[in-house]
Amino acid sequence: MTRSRVIGAILAALVAGGAATAFVIAWRPAFAAIDPPQPQSFDAARVRRGRELAAIGNCSTCHTSVGGKDFAGGVPVPTPFGTIYSSNITPDPETGIGRWSEEAFRRAMRMGVDREGRHLYPTFPYDHFTHVSDEDDNALYAYLMTREPVRAPQRENQLSFPLNQRFVIAGWKLLFLHRGTYRPDATKSAEWNRGAYLVEGLAHCGACHTPRNALGAERASAAFAGGNVDNWQAYAINAQSPSPVPWDAEALYAYLRNGWHPDHGTARGPMAAVVSNLSAVSANDVRAIATYVADMSGQPAQSRKVRGEAALAQAKSTPAVETPASPGAAIYAAACATCHESGRPPPYGGINLGLSTAISGSDPRNLANIVLSGVAPVEGESSPIMPGFASTMNDAQIAVLLHYLRSRFSDQPAWSDIERTIAEARRTQTASLNTGAGARPASPDQAQRDKR
Amino acid sequence: MTTLKVNGREHQVDAEPDTPLLYVLRDDLKLNAAKFGCGLGQCGACTVIVDGKAVLSCVTPLVLLEGKQVTTLEGLGTISEPAPIQRAFMEEQAAQCGYCIAGMMMRAQALLLRIPKPTDQQIRAELAPNLCRCGTHMRILRAVHRAARLMETAALSPAEKRSDK
User: Fold this and answer.
1) Is the domain of B18 the same as that of B51?
2) Where are the alpha helices (H) located in A183-248, listed in sequence order?
3) Chain B hits for A67, Cβ within 8 Å
């Protein structure tokens, strides 16, 4: 055997070995297709439990498109890598999950693999769902399999090579998927552990509130330090929270349950759907989530406490009547103060802007979004509303207003490059208006709406 | 003094820069079509058109209107020569108490400027910020469709109309 032949053989062996290893890592067997189970075959209590869990998991937000049928998928999820469309999770046998067994469903939740053995993109947050217990997975399965089956074929993802090759996901999982159900921390209370189980698992809070790395995975070292989602900034919910008044468990509970808090304001953007869903789950679970999240921040530092008290005192003091000295002040007086200094309690009166996280945050993006688009009413719910000012103010006028709000209502340094943020916010806002995303749809469950 | 362009005419207005446009229209210029409903930008009764777009005049301060064109319902048509949108609302009897209707017409007009033949869904979405307590919504919906047809006819020049025959 010549030298080159030996090298060739070694190379061939390496390639074959590599391919075999890749195959073992990437290949997952298919589960046999089943006949869709009869809805009556599921225990009613388990289905009810599944409904609450689906609300905690915020499933409907990604799996129900605006004006579409519940859980029929097709929602575009923009990512830095391309657009991924959510799947149909109704029990339709051909286009949904009607032929999935309970075991296949659990594997999807735990490992991000569909019934036929294909890897699912991690926009489906199985890096969190892997922590969900078998019992809860089975309840979710019971709930989804008793929904109305909807025929809605999967929309084609818009991803470029090599990301459109699903074996690539196997490599991502090797790096970032840490499997295993939640293990309680014996040094903490039962409520804290319940909260941790939900927040780290099904509620997947970190999917938005934790920043992501270049490969789109959450950065474990910066857990809950704030992220970006759908052109909104998801604020830090750990000790780095930019809210003027520090959050505590009581305030978090009220906010998550009602959608607003008098010291913090209203949930909006992608968070609006989350609180809408949480309004319908058991109070104990929301309280557990609040307890765990509040504990992430721990007790606020003395300086934060002082700052919070100052913001509250300023908000409660009667505003001085003055002739607006600047264009920003004039815009604020006519367009904002009528609600935000009305003294009417939220949600129908706006909060004093000295309490607004959007104004004290590091990024003006959320404030630009809200000034442009306002807060749309939710069909079938009593909810806060605010008119949008996209037609009323041009970008330069919004910049004047935002600079004024920042300097008057926060002790933080002026924002830089605010014009670019506003232009970008207007561009994405126009895009979303053109796709017909107007009023936010209420929770798909009538029962959830009725609970409000 | 601020210069304000309303319905094609320039007006010199003696008002503070934070004065809402609605107050100037009603109190200074005596243009009373736009109504004061809530004063909070939440009911739509005060809607007028600024540079082609529907705007809530009760929360729009004068300072924002420099160099812009304001159109109120009075600028669209008159009693003897109503504009298509006004004719359509009359023909469909879309007003009951009528308080919201001026705002409804202005927002519908802005929609038709942008989308000449809107769908039901587009009209509903566009008019969602305008509240009507009487419940004439279905008539308003029909009136906007009718206005779209009337405008289409009006848009054809006499020569085009002849060649149609």
Assistant:
1) yes
2) 190-200, 206-209
3) 121
Q: Please give the tally of structural domains in chain B.
A: 2
Residue A176 has pLDDT above 60, yes or no: yes
Does the residue B164 lie in any domain?
no
Asked if the Cβ–Cβ distance from B50 to A392 is below 8 Å, we say yes
- CA-nearest of A52, A69, A202, A67 to A124 is A202
Mutation target to probe the A interface, by most A beta carbons within 10 A, among B64, B65, B69, B130 is B64
Task: Tell me the backbone φ, ψ of residue A197, rounded to 5 degrees.
Answer: -60, -45
Last residue of a domain, one of B25, B47, B75: B75
Would the pTM of this model clear 0.90, i.e. be above it?
Answer: no
Q: Which of B41, B64, B128 sits opposite A393 (nearest CB)?
A: B64
Chain A residues touching B15 at Cβ < 8 A: none
Residue B12 lies in a domain: yes
Residues A381 and A266 sit within 8 Å (Cβ to Cβ): no
Task: Say yes or no: B67 and B114 in one domain.
Answer: no
Residue pLDDT, tens place only, A190-242: 999 999 999 999 999 999 999 999 999 999 999 999 999 888 999 999 999 99
Q: Give the one of B54, B63, B129 whose C-beta lies nearest to A327's C-beta.
A: B63
**Any CB–CB contact under 8 A between A18 and chain B?**
no
DSSP result, B35-65: --S-SSSSS-TTEEEETTEEEEGGG-BGGG-
Residues B114 and B144 grouped into a single domain? yes
Do B27 and B64 belong together in one domain?
yes
Residues B94 and B137 in one domain: yes
Mutant choice from B22, B40, B57, B119 vs A, greatest count of A C-beta within 10 A: B40
Report all structural domains of chain A as residue ranges with CATH numbers, in order of start.
33-148+165-176 (no CATH), 190-451 (1.10.760.10)
At CA A248, angle to CA A62 and CA A127, rounded to 5?
35
Identify the domain containing residue B57 by its residue range: 2-75
Task: Report the CATH number at residue B16.
Answer: 3.10.20.30
Q: Are residues B107 and B70 in the same domain?
A: no
Out of A323, A391, A438, the one facing B53 most closely (by C-beta) is: A391
DSSP annotation of A134 reads: H
Whole-complex ipTM: 0.86
pLDDT tens digits, B111-157: 999 999 999 999 999 999 999 999 999 999 999 999 999 998 876 65
Partners of residue B55 in chain A, C-beta under 8 Å: 391-392
Tell if the CB–CB gap between B129 and A338 is shorter than 8 Å.
no
Coil, helix or strand at residue B13: strand
Min Cα–Cα distance to chain B from A256, Å: 25
CATH code for position B122: 1.10.150.120
Chain A residue nearest residue B119, CA to CA: A436
Residues of B whose CB is below 8 A from A329: 18
pLDDT digits (tens, 9 = 90+) for B44-102: 999 999 999 999 999 999 999 999 999 999 999 999 999 999 999 999 999 999 999 99
Neighbours of B43 (CB within 10 A): 23
Which runs of E-coded beta strand occur in A109-246? Answer: 158-159, 227-229, 232-234
Domain closes at, from B16, B46, B75: B75
**Residue B122 Cα, gap to closest chain A Cα (Å):** 8
Interface check A382 vs B, CB under 8 A: no
Evaluate whether B61 touches A330 at the Cβ level (below 8 Å). Answer: yes
